[in-house]
Amino acid sequence: MLGVDIANIIRRDMVAHAFLIVDGDDTLWENNVYFEEAIEAFTDFLAHSSLSREQVRATLDQIELLNIRVHGYGSAAFARNLRQCYERLAERNIRKEDLDHVMALGKRIVEQPMRVLAGVAETVAYLAGRHELTLFTKGELEEQRLKVERSGLGPQFDRVAVVAEKDARAYRQLVDEHGFDPARTWMIGNSPKSDINPALQAGINAVFIPHTHTWRLEAEEIPGADGRLLVLERFSQLRDHF
Ligand SMILES: [Mg+2]
Questions:
Q1: From ligand 1's centre to the CA of 211, what distance in Å?
Q2: How far, in Å, is the centroid of ligand 1 from the Cα of 94?
Q3: Backbone phi and psi for residue 94, each to the nearest 5 degrees, phi listed first
């Protein structure tokens, strides 16, 4: 019981001046839901006679995992993955117009509306007055920059960094480059794989804010965090801690 009480006291303490690193996709704005919609449309179009939707999805996951290393993230890479999946699974003659259609399902993701998540704009403005904020996102540089611009949140951040992969090395580099004090540095995000686990591995703290539509390839167990992990339901709850 004592342990629980102490944990609660620590968690209620406001962190004075902190270095907050904030994820973009599915933390500040909707993102993966658009990929999910494209995959649904792709699966409908493929209309496979024997594979279940889940089996089609598993094939696409496999292709995505292999190609991330070469092509990275983003809608253009995703469109190519859809095409490759279609080439592998289609049961009819592969026509150019069908491949174009499949590619378009992926590419049109960049044209989807920018939807900043509830409570984010006010909370970011509040945090910006108190802490040093870094927006840290992975993916294709131009695509991510465009999202930051369309979100209108850019000016609240002290800096925006876009990297190919958010692994422990990328976090260490960011922390070193800007001289963040690890004990006062927190990574805030929705992805165990890209936000929480690599940040904890790099020796900083983390705030996990799960999102219902997190990409399934971002799922991962979060091992014990020695009191360096805070889990919140909503972005606006950051105000209670920072
Ligand atoms: Mg994210």
A1: 9
A2: 35
A3: -85, 110
- pLDDT band of residue 30 (cuts 50, 70, 90) is very high
pLDDT in tens, 112-128: 999 999 999 999 999 99
Distances (CA, A) of 36 to 8, 12, 61, 106, 220: 37, 36, 12, 10, 19
Token digits of residue 145? 């920059």
pLDDT of 6 over the 70 cut: no
CA–centroid distance, residue 24 to ligand 1 (Å):
6
Selected from 3.40.50.2300, 3.10.320.10, 3.40.50.1000, 2.130.10.10, the CATH number assigned to the domain covering 2-29+114-240 reads 3.40.50.1000
Laid out side by side, the sheet with 229-231 consists of 159-163, 132-138, 19-22, 185-189, 205-208, 229-231
Strand partners, 135: 22, 160
pTM of the model: 0.89
DSSP 28: T
Alpha carbon distance 33, 35 (integer Å): 5
Class of 33-111 in CATH: mainly alpha
